[in-house]
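Final paragraph of the annual report: two paired records, presented back to back.
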Amino acid sequence: MTSNQNKPENKPTLQTYYDVVRSEMRFEWDSGKEATNIKKHRVSFDDAKEALNCGIVVVLKETHQNGEARFVYIGLCKKLNVLVVVVAFPDENVTRIISARKANKRESKFYETQL
């Protein structure tokens, strides 16, 4: 067993998205960033929003970049793609989508085992 496996922040947890954000949550994103994301990953931020609202998401980790907390989630969009979505919460009623991509095989399998 490696030392990373003993650290609680590295253990994914299962929780509903609404445990993290309220139903009145507003989503925002940079349209230029979304265009770049679509070109690079073929995933729109509307798809990412669906994955975050699918009912159950898996929280993979929390990171900090430039003093901002960022959260990595896995969820399912209506196109039946498992997506990895990075978000920040700049305000208590705002979710800012930073990036989104299709989950790899390992991430998809992990997500399916949590359901």
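The closing record of the year follows.
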Amino acid sequence: MRRFPPKNRADLLCRGFSRKKAARLIDERRTVFFFIAGIQPKTVEIESHPRMCSSCGLYQARLKRMDHYFSLFFIPLLRVKKGDPFIQCQSCGSLFRESGQEAWRGPSTKPEDRCPHCGLFLEPAFRFCPNCGKEIF
């Protein structure tokens, strides 16, 4: 005779278990749930129209905001805190407040530290541009 796991207390009673033993066996089969929850930051792009970066001079600065979301299983569900808007340059990485005041300047902004082909900022030791792959003079 094959034995199947008991589904409920009545099933155990039909198999000949006493009420006490059936209640104890049912209590031992508790289901355990776990949740992964927390607060995580998420950068939201407010304006897709590029602005001129006052640090590097390229039109690659975008208006963004850092919001904090309540997340369940790493999925953002509810916005908990709305952040202040800032401008971030995608080329040099500099950060500015919405008023234009500089908050953080990216790497060196000298023109000789940039790739002459694509405009990416480079370290002085680079012989080739990691973005476009062309040789640096």
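The CA atoms of residues 37 and 72 lie 4 Å apart. This concludes the annual technical report; the extension proposal builds directly on these records.
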